[in-house]
Write a structure and sequence with these properties.
Order of helices and strands: EHEHEHEHHEEEHEEHEHEHH
Radius of gyration: 19 Å
Helix content: 40-55%
CATH architecture: 3-Layer(aba) Sandwich
Strand order of the largest sheet: 3-2-1-4-7-8-11
CATH topology: Rossmann fold
Oligomer: single chain
Number of domains: 1
Distance between the termini: 40 Å
Shape: globular
CATH class: Alpha Beta
Number of strands: 11
Largest sheet: 7 strands, parallel
Number of helices: 10
Length: 275
């Protein structure tokens, strides 16, 4: 089994790579725009778990990134069984004060690249013929499928929040796109799952260390290793969508009806919680 993980050099992506190698004995195609860190991760995972690892440096925020990555796989005879669309960025900024290049970066990375990778690898997975041995395999008690795709959305897909308006909108796209695609791919033997976590304990959001620790202790934030373990299990079982955390499930309906005054209050003080 070969798993392609984007954003694999750190954070959640590194956890996906680690757990796929450790728990599923999967070979890895690791993609990131952090070339040095990526090479180190690939070597470490190869040494520790005895799987084949291929580090591939790429800037997935470029419009042509998905086509180039798919072409790289075809040219090198790499057949991807698992696609983890994890790469992402986050910034807090008023929209009309944000450089258009940064807006392009987020739109391309979260939407264009994800959609095109699903299109290209999805078709390849649909047309795949499993060997007799693969047809007998079971993962988490479920019959092996032709392919697996996991897309990372966010609980913020339900939030209308100034300052992170582009982030929220792109995550809403990923959520609805993935759920719609599930109905198309599932009957053809391909599982696609979208995860919508709340806060995750990584450096992505720029919270101070003490606040990150507090958020985990209050179960407001989830450790990345716990999130990834759950996400992979849901993907292999064919779950359409999943949101970890009871608090997140309770909070989601409230987010849709947040009073305007509370939104403005949150924006006023959000700067205090960042480094």
């Amino acid at each position: 089994m070969l798993s392609l993980v984007t954003g694999a050099s750190s954070g959640i992506g590194l956890q996906y790579a680690t757990q796929l190698a450790r728990d599923y004995h999967s070979d890895l195609l690791l993609v990131s725009n952090q070339e040095k860190e990526l090479a180190e991760v690939a070597q470490n995972l190869k040494n520790e778990y005895g799987v084949n690892t291929i580090p591939h440096y790429a800037d997935l925020s470029k419009p042509e990134a998905a086509d180039l990555l798919f072409a790289y796989c075809k040219e090198n005879g790499l057949v991807v069984d698992v696609l983890i669309n994890n790469a992402g960025v986050f910034f807090f900024n008023p929209y009309c004060e944000t450089a258009t290049k940064r807006i392009d970066l987020m739109l391309n990375l979260h939407m264009i690249t994800v959609a095109k990778l699903c299109r290209l690898f999805g078709e390849e997975m649909i047309n795949r013929q499993l060997t007799e041995q693969e047809q007998q395999e079971k993962i988490h008690g479920c019959k092996r499928q032709k392919g697996y795709i996991l897309n990372m959305s966010s609980m913020s897909a339900w939030m209308a929040m100034p300052g992170i308006q582009t982030y929220n909108a792109t995550k809403a796209f990923i959520y609805n796109f993935s759920k719609s695609l599930w109905y198309e791919l599932k009957p053809k033997g391909v599982n696609i799952t979208v995860m919508t976590p709340g806060a995750v304990d990584t450096a992505l959001f720029g919270l101070a260390p003490n606040l990150r620790k507090l958020a985990v202790n209050l179960t407001v934030a989830i450790p990345p290793e716990k999130l990834v373990k759950r996400a992979l299990r849901k993907m292999f079982k064919g779950k359409k969508a999943d949101m970890p955390g009871v608090i997140n499930h309770l909070a989601t309906p409230l987010l849709k009806h947040t009073p305007d005054w509370l939104v403005f209050l949150a924006i006023k003080y959000v700067g205090r919680f960042q480094k």
